[in-house]
Amino acid sequence: MPLAERAVALDARTARYRRQLAEVVGVTAQHANLMQQLLLARRFRRELDAALILDSRDVQAERDLLEFYLLAPGIAGGDVRKAEATAGRIGAIDPAEGFLARARVAEFEKRSSDVEAYLRRAVEVVPSAYRAHIALGQFYLKSVPPKLAEAAREARLAVALDGGRVDGYSILAAVQAQRGEWEALNDTLSASVVAVPDDLTPYFRAAEHVQRLNWDRAERYLRIYLTQEPEGNEPTAAEARGKLAHLGAD
After folding, report:
1. What burial letters (b/e) apply to 72-86, b meaning 16+ CB within 10 Å?
2. Contact yes or no for 155/137 (Cβ under 8 A)
3. How many Å is the Cα radius of gyration of the chain?
4. Less packed terminus of the chain by CB within 10 Å, N or C?
């Protein structure tokens, strides 16, 4: 919070600084009591509204607003209908992101068939949209039962679009771990370390899915994951240590 506030103090006319501060406030609110949430919700909207005034085409700011409408209690301004309207505004700026936003609303409302339909439309309308391929791949990976071939396909397309981002490798690692494709999994993990050395999430995702087949391999992957500080939005070190304890290895 102090760093985000400092950025705004130095330059309050840059939209992404105001948006970043709003995001920090939003995450803080998720861990606060109800009274604090109400106060933080007002601050979140103030900062996010300021960001959108500075840049009305900031898709990330609109996505943040959509999450606010979905997750905030009604007394603080939460409203699914407003989330749907926000998804429409996002679509007017970026068609692929618009379908991803509609998929998020459908997911919130537990409309699984609509989620898949929107995600498929996102990759169809903008085949080069990395986030769309990742979202569709994750959907297939989490399906019951998992659609592993489809998840792997979307992950490979994402890696081909941008091999410097970690998400595609994480999905591939999860798929290969579930299939017990050890040689392919080792290749994926090695490629991810070369391409994204500061994020070892593929090792954590592999460990999640391999522990039922090979506990020693799961332990090794988790210990590799713990060799450096996890990225902010990825599984925490505490989660990794908890999995090690569950394996009886820590």
Report:
1. beeebbeeeeebbeb
2. yes
3. 20
4. N
The reported pLDDT for the residue numbered 249 is 53
Please give the Cα distance from 250 to 245 (Å, whole number). 5
Spatial distance between the Cα atoms of 59 and 146, rounded to a whole number of angstroms: 30
**Structure-token pair, residue 171:** 């999905």
Q: What is the pLDDT of residues 206-248, one digit of tens each?
A: 999 987 778 899 999 999 999 999 998 899 999 999 999 988 7
Which residue type does 147 have? Answer: K
- Give the SS3 label for residue 235: coil
Could you tell me the CA-to-CA distances from 176 to 8, 157, 226 in Å, in that order? 44, 16, 21
What crossing angle do the helices spanning 112-125 and 95-108 adopt, rounded to 10°?
170
2 preceded by cis ω (within 30°)? no
3-class DSSP assignment, residue 122: helix
pLDDT in tens, 42-66: 999 999 999 999 999 999 999 999 9
Q: How far is residue 42's CA from residue 226's CA, in Å, rounded to a whole number?
A: 37
User: pLDDT tens, 55-97?
Assistant: 999 999 999 999 999 998 888 889 999 999 999 999 999 999 9
For all residues of the chain together, what is the average pLDDT? Answer: 94
DSSP state of 236: -
What is the CB neighbour count within 10 angstroms for residue 69?
Answer: 20
Backbone angles phi, psi at 11, to 5 degrees: -155, 90
If phi over 0 gives left and psi between -120 and 50 gives alpha, with beta otherwise, what is residue 235? beta
CA angle 1, 201, 164 (to 5 degrees): 90
